[in-house]
């Protein structure tokens, strides 16, 4: 079992025919929070103290040593981001372990819906979010993503489904399955475990939220900034983002004519557009974004 502060390479709890599953012996599953092609997230209750958590478990075993090390990178990053108390706007990490070649990751439970479901609720009610709420969303996400970047990590999969809401309406960024330390030659976990310095990076999240440079192999912090801009565009415009075709290309070429943002201030619209500039170098970094006077005022 991985304990807080222990290096990832010590992870090694493996269920066998003679050993009961750590997952089933420690937790009671109360329901499924979500699932994808590769993993499932359950709402669980600790049998010892009754505390609720979220546990992400892989659906399939590792395909080999390299696949295992790649997936353990998520654990390394969660623990790294959580040291010294972590950050208010990032889902907290508690534990991780392996059973029969499957990885389990235990994090805090955000009991409300994810941001994707929240946006769908607003859309079903016949409208988009008001401007004050949008500024609050932008402030909390910029704080969380800014902390991630300050720690020299890329998220690379920022989207509403990976943003979670607490019972007091705080937004938290989660699911670091595609995240990586950056720059890669500073990736201590991967370099030490593979005994070499990685020369390439293969990460590609959902096309709806992906920065154009990612498809050209251009990884970096601006890619996360672009994804943040798309989250804000979706929230403000009450739109379903395209995953291909002309509308997809227009958004990535500074053309937002398909999205009606006329109900919002020039200040908010300009911020959203700045995050979505096609030139990665022209986008603001998170430190610059957090200094915006409106975001400063919202944070007081």
UniProtKB/TrEMBL annotation:
<dbReference type="InterPro" id="IPR000719">
    <property type="entry name" value="Prot_kinase_dom"/>
</dbReference>
<protein>
    <submittedName>
        <fullName>Kinase-like protein</fullName>
    </submittedName>
</protein>
<keyword id="KW-0808">Transferase</keyword>
<dbReference type="GO" id="GO:0004713">
    <property type="term" value="F:protein tyrosine kinase activity"/>
</dbReference>
<dbReference type="InterPro" id="IPR050339">
    <property type="entry name" value="CC_SR_Kinase"/>
</dbReference>
<dbReference type="InterPro" id="IPR011009">
    <property type="entry name" value="Kinase-like_dom_sf"/>
</dbReference>
<dbReference type="Pfam" id="PF00069">
    <property type="entry name" value="Pkinase"/>
</dbReference>
<feature type="domain" description="Protein kinase">
    <location>
        <begin position="27"/>
        <end position="295"/>
    </location>
</feature>
<dbReference type="GO" id="GO:0005634">
    <property type="term" value="C:nucleus"/>
</dbReference>
<keyword id="KW-0547">Nucleotide-binding</keyword>
<dbReference type="GO" id="GO:0005524">
    <property type="term" value="F:ATP binding"/>
</dbReference>
<dbReference type="GO" id="GO:0110031">
    <property type="term" value="P:negative regulation of G2/MI transition of meiotic cell cycle"/>
</dbReference>
<keyword id="KW-0067">ATP-binding</keyword>
<comment type="similarity">
    <text>Belongs to the protein kinase superfamily. Ser/Thr protein kinase family. GCN2 subfamily.</text>
</comment>
<dbReference type="GO" id="GO:0005737">
    <property type="term" value="C:cytoplasm"/>
</dbReference>
<dbReference type="InterPro" id="IPR008271">
    <property type="entry name" value="Ser/Thr_kinase_AS"/>
</dbReference>
<keyword id="KW-0418">Kinase</keyword>
């Amino acid at each position: 079992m991985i304990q807080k502060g222990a290096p990832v390479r010590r992870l090694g709890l493996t269920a066998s025919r003679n050993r009961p599953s750590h997952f089933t012996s420690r937790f009671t599953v109360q329901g499924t929070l979500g699932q994808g092609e590769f993993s499932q997230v359950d709402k669980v209750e600790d049998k010892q103290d009754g505390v609720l958590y979220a546990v992400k478990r892989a659906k399939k075993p590792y395909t080999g040593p390299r696949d295992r090390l790649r997936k353990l990178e998520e654990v390394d990053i969660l623990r790294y981001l959580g040291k010294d108390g972590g950050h208010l706007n990032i889902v907290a990490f508690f534990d991780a372990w392996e059973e029969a070649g499957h990885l389990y990751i235990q994090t805090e439970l955000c009991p409300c819906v994810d941001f994707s479901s929240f946006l769908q609720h607003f859309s079903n009610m016949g409208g988009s979010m008001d401007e004050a709420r949008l500024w609050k969303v932008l402030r909390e996400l910029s704080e969380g993503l800014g902390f991630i970047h300050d720690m020299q990590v890329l998220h690379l999969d920022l989207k509403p489904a990976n943003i979670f809401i607490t019972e007091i309406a705080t937004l938290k960024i989660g699911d670091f399955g595609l995240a990586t330390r950056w720059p890669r030659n500073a990736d201590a976990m991967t370099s030490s475990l593979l005994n070499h310095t990685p020369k390439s990076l293969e990460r590609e999240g959902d096309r709806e939220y992906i920065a154009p440079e990612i498809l050209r192999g251009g990884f970096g912090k601006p890619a996360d900034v672009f994804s943040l801009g798309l989250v804000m565009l979706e929230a403000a415009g009450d739109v379903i983002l395209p995953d291909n075709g002309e509308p997809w290309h227009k958004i990535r070429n500074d053309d937002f004519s398909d999205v009606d943002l006329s109900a919002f201030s020039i200040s908010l619209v300009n911020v959203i557009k700045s995050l979505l500039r096609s030139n990665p170098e022209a986008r603001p970094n998170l430190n610059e974004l957090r200094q915006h006077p409106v975001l400063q005022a919202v944070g007081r």
